[in-house]
Write a structure and sequence with these properties.
122 residues; mainly alpha; two-stranded antiparallel sheet
Length: 122
């Protein structure tokens, strides 16, 4: 067996061993959830995530109370497939008290925290 073929064979064996190990652990590598949570706290992301969840839950709750959830899946029909767009971005110190709206995912994530320009009428 030539050196090139031997190296190729070893690479294939390593891939097979790696795949077998992954399949034994349930198909994915084990994640350290505690580590991820601690990282989130260290980056001060936890508070913003809680604000986002409160906003989503508030919209969904008002829809359930006012008949805005026709398919009874617990998500407001107006919010399905959309994001909650905060008027003042959470990363800029905004909260739910500053207000929020329902916006498409692409619109909310592409505006990069910028407010839309008001059009001038002359």
């Amino acid at each position: 067996m030539s050196q090139i073929n031997r190296n190729r064979f070893r690479q294939q064996e390593r891939k097979r061993a790696k795949k077998a190990k992954r399949m034994q652990s349930g198909g994915m590598y084990e994640r350290d959830w505690d580590q991820e949570y601690q990282t989130q706290l260290a980056r001060n992301e936890h508070k913003d995530r809680m604000e986002r969840q409160k906003a989503r839950r508030g919209v969904d709750q008002s829809a359930r109370n006012n008949g805005g959830d026709d398919n009874n899946n617990g998500v407001a029909d107006a919010r399905e497939g959309k994001d909650i767009a905060h008027n003042k971005p959470l990363r800029s110190g905004g909260t739910n008290k500053d207000g929020y709206t329902i916006a498409s995912r692409s619109k909310n994530r592409s505006n990069n925290g910028q407010r839309p320009n008001k059009t001038r009428t002359t």
